[in-house]
Amino acid sequence: MEIRIDKEGKTPMYLQISRRIREMILSGTLPAGFRLPPERKLAEELQVNRTTVLNAYRELKSGGFVDSHIGQGTTVTLRQASEDTVWESGGSGTPDMPSMPWEQLFSESSLRIQDTTVRDLLGGVRSDMILFAAGVTVPGHDSLEALKRIQAEVLESSGRIAVQHTPTEGLFPLRESICELMRERGINAKAAETMVLTGSQQGLDLIARAFIEAGDVVLAEEPTFFSAVHIFKAAGARVVGIPADNEGMRTDLLDMLVKRFKPKLIYTIPDFQNPSGAVMSMERRKTLLSVASRNQVVILEDDPYGLLRYEGKAMPALKAMDIYGNVLYLSTFSKLMFPGFRVGWLTAPPQVLYRLTMLKQMADLHTSSLPQLIIDRFLREGLIKEHLEKANKENRSRRDLMVSELESSHPDGMGWNRPEGGLYLWCRLPERVPQSRLLASSMERGVSFVPGDVFFPGSPLGNYIRLNYTYPTSEQIVEGVKRLMASYAGIAREQKKYGTGIANELGPII
Amino acid sequence: MFELARRMDKVKTSDIRELLKLTDKPGMISFGGGLPAPELFPVERLKEVTAKVLESSGAEALQYAATEGYQPLRRKIAERMNRRFGTLMSENNILVTCGSQQGLDFTGKIFINEGDTVLCESPTYLGAINAFSAYGPKMVEVPTDNDGMLPEQLEHILDTERNIRLIYVIPDSQNPSGRTWSTERRKRFMELLKGRNIPVLEDAPYSELRFDGNIMPSLKSMDTEGIIIYLGTFSKVFCPGMRIGWVAADERILEKYGLVKQGADLHSSNITQRNISAYMEMYDLDSDIERIRLVYKSRRDAMHKALLADFPGGARFTHPEGGLFTWVELEGDINTRELLVESLGSNVAFVPGESFFPNGGGKNTMRLNFSNMPEEKITEGIKILGDLIKRRVNCAEACVNRT
Questions:
Q1: How far apart, in whole angstroms, are the C-alpha atoms of residue B341 and residue B335?
Q2: ipTM, interface predicted TM-score of the complex
Q3: Contacting residues of B for A369, CB less than 8 Å apart
Q4: B110 part of contact set with chain A, CB < 8 Å
Q5: Which of A236, A340, A422, B326 would disulfide-bridge B62, Cβ 3.0–4.6 Å?
């Protein structure tokens, strides 16, 4: 049994191990009944912690690939249909019939979809893991109670609507309530210009399908939200980064970039940008709008965090200043309140909305009805205001805690921002502490975060990590930073000893 | 001012969309949409189930979840498939989608390049035609009779067509025709596909809604090579508004669906998945389906009786063994699109059959849904339609006589 693992890779080692073994089981290399090596032995072989192997085996067991019995060790389970089953199924192939060559059958466009970052972040998480990798807030007790009441009331008064098909654009009352909410961002939109989405991720997907053809260029701040980049790339776009600083994208370069690349679309997160936390200055907002409209370029404004400001003065959304009508505005309830509902929205000129509705019908007919009814009632009762006040207050105190924990351990050479809202700290690491090594080491200690490289559409400009401070509890923040800093110190020490000279050299391939 | 991507040209306003609007009108007798009977929805039970989910696991249910779906639900789906359809699935073979429409869209994205060939029944499901069309395939219709695809013709097409990337079929109570493939034809189909390495998409929303006889063996249950990608949904047997369906397939291909799903919407509504899962724990979905089945069966009978009584002798219609639809072929050159405009004036809606032929044709055909209306409305609506058709037949004859 030969297993190769990449100790500096982004994927946790236990997952690398379990995946490799799973492949061998599925391909038939490891037959049913095969006894896997004892955890301790494999751990020695691979030079990893025994817990890592333990977790890998646990993962395999939960997938039904292996079974373990005291005294017998861990064995591969029987997965093939037995010979005498009349209707047998499986699909792993039989001796006389090789299995399907799936890789040869995939379409070109689907082969462009490769990245598993989000999935790795969402799934396969140990229950005792401290998550600095998340991108969510935790709804408070009051909001949860309100939700229970509203759900019962909505099912009482509109139960039939909740279980039936509803319009593709979303429930009209909810579209109205969303417009009301957007006034907080200075946006004056009509329900007819607003559609409900299955999370704002769907908005990115629909917009990419509607606008992007192979070879089109999309400009985006660098760094930026990786899922958006992946979607544009999967649609065939070339994503070109716009340098950014703490006032957002460098709009002084915009004219030149637009002239050179003739982009179809500019993707931006003006408020509490993911991951940098930057807020675009008023001056730059104006320049962006004017350059884009002069050149007839679509602006996609992604604003999941605009209402999550706990300090400083709010800026109006770009959409609020959209005189020319070329801004598509995207936001979501996932960051504001409840991600598990999968409800987001899009505001756009009517002819764009119509096109996107056609596409949405094809994609999923409509968004789940009951969550729409619940959110509408939540907004209409005005509960969102109180909910956001509490959430923002909580978020601020957690930011303060994480910043002060970092400060008190004053890691040599590491820096971070102090955002006025949003969910993340963006931390710069010195070159001698590579993010991949820090991740591997901190995962071993049970702390996860997102390595900064994934946010760069091209080559990474610097060595960063993103830490979320809104999901973990105060205790977890204290404990998590402690463990993270232990990893940091360990790597920094090691590097001092051996130097970093060889880290970036490429060996010639011969 | 905006320039849209060229693929947008292939996305047309669909009849489904227009129909959802029509059926909302009060007083309308709708044989249009494929909607289940609203009075059969377990709204009361849902109150209890949803309250319990929020009470017991509210914090988790409101968070992000795994792209593949809520694990206990995936397990229940696999178990259910194995029990009802004779498959051997594990939870790792299941990916939860936003209704089976999403499964259709993903399948198009995963397999179809511009210009590739997709085989389908003739006629076939409109939502699938739309989903695939966006990826620019050549749709080839395989001649189909009451027992399914005709084997000789299928073999000929398989041997002669180039670049066949996907075969799309609905073997049970097909939409729109209401036909069910015979066991013999299913076996023959699988034999013909052996060793050809062509993926087959088995769309099975109506399998459990069979009125006469046992549930038929799914193609997936006969799948030794892993070529069958199975789409299931709770929309027809539980609640369509929840938008929960699934893809069941070989794990290697399911991984690809997971990647596409991640880009499309990260995951299906977490709380909705948990609601369905909890419902299946607290209540017996099988007995719910049994109840639905009996209601639809008597509605099918009512429609069949009314068609025999009130449609002109030249009209041919299917006698579906399950599902939601009857398929009607009218004689001669009666255009059902024109008929629809007229019948809407008399408050009766249906879907003109033309939409179900990817390459055109079938102007004299229509799809009638019988699940959504009570029996007396069915009788009344069919009478109205029958009269309108007879008038057209008579008029056509009169015109012919005059010349």
A1: 10
A2: 0.87
A3: 241-243
A4: yes
A5: A340
